[in-house]
Amino acid sequence: MFRLYSWYNIIRYQPFTFKLDVYTTRSFMSRGFTEYIPSSLAGGQNNVEVQQSPGALASSAWNTRGWTVQEFLAPNFVLFYQRDWSLYLDDRSPNHKDSLIIMQEMADVAGIDTQALIAFRPGMRFAREKLQWVSARVTTCQEDIAYSLFGIFGVNLPAIYGEKKQKALGRLLQEVVAQSGDISALDWVGQSSEFNSCLPADIASYKAPPYTVSSLSEDDIQASISSLRHEVAADVVLKLYTLLGNLSAPRFGNCRLHLPCIAFRVTAVKRNRAQDQEIYEVKADGLLDLLITTEDKLIQFSSPRPTMQTFLLVRPWNRHLLKLPDFTEPSGLAELPEIAGDRESEEGCWSALGSPSQQSSGGFPEAQESVDSELSGRALRLAARLRQPFGAFSLAQQHGGEYKIIASDHDIFAQVKDLSSISDMVKTLEIS
After folding, report:
1. What pLDDT, on the 0 to 100 scale, is given for residue 53?
2. Nearest by Cα to 263 from 412, 424, 411
3. What is the spatial distance between Cα 228 and Cα 224, in angstroms, rounded to a whole number?
């Protein structure tokens, strides 16, 4: 499947043509190469009228298929034709990727940023966004929804037809996390995969936009820092910053995820019987009380009636919160051509400037004071961000000591109550 994207990439300087109205999802010509056949050959009906105004892309079956994402992204030159082989919108430019109207329509229909549509390069960055691109698409063979992403992520994995979609998707996501350290693929809502409970059973779990915290303005950050100076000792903030800075990247091994995180121990779970849904009131060390909605039956317990099993609410650690300079790649989905691959560039981000304890001032008192001040400032800014609400997931400890995620059909939102207590909660957990 990676070779398929490479083939598209080789011919990307030749115009690629798409006839919008002649594709049907009823059959396919060659597995893994193209999943549509002309309607005239399949006995299907044309599904797009010849027209000179935008709108045909939204009603074309071509935009519902899994393989057509990389089919469009890879070529540099694309032309769209209508049923009568006239150019779409009568746009006679040599490349429809240069058409603002067509690219905006394509972006609206496909949910893909226009810059990515025009100048996409395969790679691991922005994993969650790429997964969302195909979350509503379909393929004839269930494994193909994962295989169609191999080239987009730039991974070289074997296609093993018959392994079923959960394992195919699991192998892909394991590779993405293992190579890049990107934990955004863990942000989903739905049923857990049999491959690993931290991964979804279906690509559709990525349909909902990821949870994002509203950015703090500089005034808000300074107000929070001013408050922190009176509430939390400086050495506590610096210790937390150092602990988080020294955490290693997340990694996969033998279908088990080793996840750096801040783990809050759940101390009480009580079902809210006033609701029709399964809604639970949850208390956890270091967090404000919160509500969890899930289809699963949670064990109810409290301090007077404790449980032998350990339950945690977890904040996966995102190293980018340290706000270290990233000298590896420019931002944006239109990435530079890869030389040594995304793994080296992502690892460069994880090791940028080293951990706080590794930084040196050069031995001069004035420089040492400057470094201490800068480090203290970064630590306080991190603490201000850690006080914001965050997306969490719940874990239950298993007999072997590892953890499994408790899947939820709703996002779990949590917020730190006591920042000074979470240094002891920084750890790496093994999740199966």
Report:
1. 66
2. 424
3. 6
Enumerate residues 6+ apart whose C-beta is below 8 A from 326: 349, 352
Average pLDDT of the chain to the nearest whole number: 78
Q: Which long-range contacts (CB under 8 A, 24 or more apart) does 2-11 make?
A: 2/150, 2/151, 2/154, 2/155, 2/156, 2/157, 4/32, 4/33, 4/70, 4/151, 5/70, 5/74, 5/122, 5/150, 5/151, 5/152, 6/151, 8/70, 8/71, 8/74, 8/75, 8/151, 9/74, 11/75
Residue 274, judged by CB atoms within 10 A of its CB (0-12, 13-18, 19+), counts as exposed
Q: Is the pTM of this model over 0.90?
A: no
Tell me: pLDDT of 58 over 50: yes
CA gap 87, 96 in Å, rounded: 10
Query: Using CA atoms, how far apart are residues 195 and 163, in angstroms rounded to an integer?
Result: 11
Asked if 165 contacts 91 with a C-beta cutoff of 8 angstroms, the reply is no
pLDDT average, residue stretch 260-277: 84
Distance CA(418)–CA(291), nearest Å, equals 18
Q: Give percent above pLDDT 70 in the chain.
A: 74
Is residue 282 within 8 A of residue 292, CB to CB? The reply is: yes
For residue 254, the Cα-to-chain-centroid distance in whole angstroms is 21
Instruction: Retrieve residue 333's tokens.
Output: 């989905």
pLDDT in tens, 228-261: 888 888 899 999 999 999 998 898 888 899 999 9
For 308-334, letters b (16+ CB in 10 Å) and e give eeebbbbbbbbbeebebeeeebeeebe
User: Bridge partners of 263?
Assistant: 314
Q: How confident is the model at residue 88 (pLDDT cuts 50, 70, 90)?
A: confident
